[in-house]
Amino acid sequence: MIYILTINYNSSALICQLIESLPEPQSPEYQIFIINNSPEDEAIFKLQSSRVKILEPNMNLGFGGGCNFGISHIASQDPQAVIWLLNPDTYFPKQPQKQYWKLINQIWQENSQLSILGTLIETPIGNIWFSQGFFNKHTGRIIDVQELMPSDNGLVETDWISGCSLMINLEKFKNCPYFDEAFFLYYEDSDFCLRYRALGHQLAVSSELKIIHQPSSITNKNQYAKLFHSSFSYLYFLQRHTSQLVFLICLSKFFLNTVFKLITQPQIGRAKYDGLISFIKKMTPDV
């Protein structure tokens, strides 16, 4: 069974589009779980059906927290489930490959070493938005590749996979895998992948599977929140995955850029500054 997991934050129309784009179920079957991070969005309940279930945390848990809420629920029902995280602003191509679900099952069966699988992600106009992710711990550089990479079997190795379209095979984990909920938005997927990769889990992206993504169609509605959370999460990610020296260099660059933005683009600068202060407070709770 494949369990599709998506997070609703005032995005019921987008999730409706995602559900309507899904290929007809073949084998294995699939179930859809929607984590409702916006209790005021009553329209989301119109999507509920025998195949679509809505889980209510009764508060906004953020992306990572919402995913954890769903992962925990699914794992309690099916400890060997394949969970497919899909952003609410994604949808399947109009003419998906025949036997789409059978192909997914085949990839897992033929690559038993895999724990986490990603897909090719394109924009609505056909540009590649994500195909691989890399991280250089010596520079703090986070790289997302936007070109199709050659592969013998349709799979390419990667350091991290975009949470926009990410599959987790629970069978490969001794303990249920979770996101770090300190990441409310942004970089939680990179952190998740790097942590489990360091524990020996294998990751890959399939170029045979494709998802369409409408970038920032949700987060662009609130630019302050987008910049605030991305600033906090960026610094928190670097603090966790680089050396102290590299982190201090990156932090200094971020601070100087924030000061520059405060002068030239005050609204952007303010959001980045508040994210910086929030990060400092988290790192120094007793100060």
Q: Describe it for me?
A:
With 287 residues, the chain is of the alpha/beta class. The chain has 2 domains: 212 residues, Spore Coat Polysaccharide Biosynthesis Protein SpsA, Chain A (Alpha-Beta Complex); 62 residues. Helix content is 37%, strand content 23%. The chain is built from 7 helices and 12 strands. Strands 1, 2, 3, 4, 5, 6, 7, 10, 11 and 12 form a 10-stranded mixed β-sheet that branches. Strands 8-9 form a two-stranded antiparallel ribbon. α4 packs parallel to α5 and α5 crosses α7. 36% of the residues are buried. The mean pLDDT is 91.
Key traits:
2 domains; 287 residues; 7 helices; Spore Coat Polysaccharide Biosynthesis Protein SpsA, Chain A; 10-stranded mixed β-sheet; two-stranded antiparallel ribbon; alpha/beta; 12 strands
Q: How are the SSEs placed, and which strands pair?
A:
Blueprint: E1 2-8, H1 12-21, E2 30-36, E3 52-55, H2 62-77, E4 82-86, E5 90-91, H3 100-110, E6 114-122, E7 128-130, E8 132-136, E9 141-145, E10 155-157, E11 165-169, H4 188-198, E12 202-213, H5 223-241, H6 244-264, H7 266-283
Parallel strand pairs: 1-2, 1-4, 2-3, 6-12
Antiparallel strand pairs: 4-11, 5-12, 6-7, 6-11, 8-9, 10-12
Helix pairs in contact: 4-5, 5-7, 6-7
Summed up:
The chain is an alpha/beta fold. The protein is built from seven helices and twelve strands.
Got a strand count? 12
The main sheet comes to: 10 strands, mixed
What name does CATH use for the topology of the largest domain? Spore Coat Polysaccharide Biosynthesis Protein SpsA, Chain A
| Overall mean pLDDT | 91
What is the radius of gyration computed over CA atoms, rounded to a whole number of angstroms? 19 Å
What low-confidence regions span 5 or more consecutive residues with pLDDT below 50?
none
Straight-line distance between termini: 49 Å
What coarse outline follows from CA principal-axis ratios?
Answer: globular
Quickly give the CATH architecture of the largest domain. Answer: Alpha-Beta Complex
